[in-house]
Amino acid sequence: MTSRRHFITRATGVAAGAGLVLAQAAPARAQAPSPPAAAGKSKLDEVRARGKVIVGVTSEAPPFGFIDDKSELVGFDIDVAKLIAKGIFGDDGKIDLFKQGFAARWPNTQNGTIDFGIMVTTIYPDRALQVAFTRPYIDSGIVLVVKKDSPVKTIADLNKPEFTVAHLTAPVQEERGKRLYPNAKFLTFDAISAQFNAVKLGRATACQLDAPVALFYLKDNPEFRILDEWLTDVTGNGIFLRQDDFKWWLFLDTVVAEMLGGSRWSEYRAIYKKWFGVEPRHARVSQSGR
User: Does this model's pTM top 0.85?
Assistant: First the structure.
């Protein structure tokens, strides 16, 4: 059976039409929140009574959320949030997009400033101590991007002084580089776009990118490829919300499940292809005869 890592790298190779297994209808990776007290109302009831949903998003992380050349807030996460609003109200316009920094995610969720957040947030156990997560709506992981004609085929191939790797100004990327290819040279940048351009202009041999971000860049730059060997395990990005509202969590998790393999599959698939240029690959639940 084709592995998730194999599939994403195959999506960037010569064979056309291949896709990426970044969206899996897998079990939730964080524990469901406990049911709230019987006397309390669910956030779902509050949202429906209000007539719109308030969603925490980022404007600083293309292709998930960013300001485009028309000064509009766009991105994959933005489109998924609108699909959820459509699931609540039958209208994807009944939504307020609340731009926030990553440090504000947990406080704004806990104090009710936002109804839920969707902003390229990886599910980790320590984060699940602060907020509840739905099952992943997209998978990720760290990959290396090189030019198609590069002699580099594996991570070990980079471990030579004649090669240079572009990193972000993030300690984890430097640590990873020193551990996996210590003999290579490093270039450090403040922006992901600068990392990618360093490889494009020949200043670097490779760059470390999140897998979906890599696909976003490769969509318009077919002269690049992703190494088959990933730098990290596959991780999942989840929608986050307060921990004490089972009814709201169940609704959001159900919508995510329907996006990945049910009644919302075709809409999710169109959004995915729009931003990443390939098909999401996972088992679609048959809706025939229902």
Answer: no
